[in-house]
Amino acid sequence: MKKIATGNKAVSEAVKQVKPDVIAAYPITPQTEIVEQIAEFVTNGELDCRYIPVESEHSVMAACIGASITGARTFTATSSHGLLYMHEMTNWAVGARLPIVMANVNRSLGPGWNIWAEHTDALQERDTGWLQVYVSTVQEAYDTTLMAFRIAEHNNVLLPVMVNLDGFLLSHIMQPLDTVEPGDFIPPFHLPYAIDVKNPAGYGGLTGPDQQFLMRWDIERSMRDSAKVIEETEGEFAKRFGRKYGFTEDYRCGDADVIVVAMGTLGKEAEVAIDLLRKEGIKAGSMRLRWLRPFPKLNLKGKEVVVIDRDYSFGRGGILATEIMAQTKEEVASVIAGIGGQEVTYEDVADFVRKRRMGTETWFGVNDNV
Amino acid sequence: MFEIRIHSRGGQGGVTAARLLALAAIHDGKYATAAPFYGAERRGAPIVSFVRIDDKPIKIYSQIKKPDMVIVLDASVMDIVDVLQGLKSGGKVLVNSQQKKEFSGYISRNVDLTGIALKEKLVVSGSPILNTPVIGALAKMGIVSVDSAKKAIREMFADERNVKAAEAAYREMSA
Fold first, then answer.
1. Which single residue of A108, A183, B96, B115 could bond A340 by disulfide (Cβ 3.0 to 4.6 Å)?
2. A171 interfaces chain B, CB cutoff of 8 Å
3. What is the rounded distance in angstroms from the CA atom of residue A233 to the CA atom of residue A203?
4. Which CATH fold would you assign to the domain A248-363?
5. How many CB atoms lie within 10 A of CB B94?
6. Per residue in B97-126, pLDDT tens?
7. ipTM metric
8. Would you call B61 and A266 a contact, using CB atoms and an 8 Å cutoff?
9. Counting Cβ atoms within 10 Å, is residue A279 exposed (0-12), middle (13-18) or buried (19+)?
């Protein structure tokens, strides 16, 4: 049957099909619908899992860690300040090697009190060791949530995965959705060192200067290995269900002179800008970054690059632009646009390309650029 | 691409109307998106929602600036909001009203959705339900097919009075 769903609904549908054992949650706009719908699935018997409503996001992640460490498949969802409130525990989840899956509905940080889309919340978690993926359609939110469990729980990964979707722009928009029967695409979860009362062991004991770096290196090794697991998982997904994903979604990049790089819904709308620019004779392409961690090798050789950041690192620059400049020798024109849900249209994106000044940073809507 | 902007007040079902319309369009074999614009709205405040319908997948997330059609679920918002803003010349306007409203340069239609909802006793928390009857009026205007309109309503609402209200709106809409 043809379905229509919001981004939030798509995530909760995928979670229902993956059947987590434990979900701990605390509501926050614009994520609330996800955990609300899951709570409903649990109440009406569609999903048999332990749903733990707790008093804060810090406790959410603590509860997820406690559950995951026993070998339970674990999920949560959050947004903005909720994510930041988890920060101590998100690090702990990585160090304990727990493949928790979390949906983060990207939202600006306060003050001002702003509930609209921005990526700075997730990007402030960039260095924790969570895998991070950014989606752009309702279908992609669903498909990627399914895949996130398989990737996180893979023996060569055993790291948590954060699925990011733009607040309101994607969380609350309705688009067509095809659901699938995941079957053995999601194998049973087996945590190699799960806590077991019959074989007592400890987690998180005192680790000296002669050991800690080895544990950190092991996280990095798994992060690097995760690239192969992502590729394999996305390949298998395409084979079984017919929808193809990658580290990036490239649109008319092959012969392009200038490439727009962006994440989330703006990365998808950029494709419309590309068509517009092509009609004007500008050879433009779009590269929508899906996976931020692990960061892929981008093929930007010989291209001018326009990076759109819906985020910022004060005193440095657009975070995505900075990541790309660290990797490529090509010149980058950095555009800061969409902060706190600022309206950005494909026509604006086309304008960013037409008016690009390589090696500069531009804040969309701010007139005193230097 | 056909772009529709729906004007209503918070709590009147404008967002659900957008969802129903998108679902009906999808049943017609089209692609569609329904996007509420979330501001700091509350019950009673003027709000807008957007629907896009196309033959190919829709990649646009930004707001609709130049709609092909405007739907006004509450005529009183016209006192405070310029509902025709950006409407393409020759575009369509549908107003929930007993009185015929003429907008020069546009195709204007009206239908008494409130009256229809009250007649069918479709009232929730004191507010008449407008989002299901309006889909009937839109079917009459050829935006979606009658079958898809009914199918979409039945999928989202168990109460058959919603379909009856849509049928009434289909019959009663002004020429």
1. A108
2. no
3. 29
4. Rossmann fold (3.40.50)
5. 27
6. 998 888 999 999 999 999 999 999 999 888
7. 0.92
8. yes
9. exposed
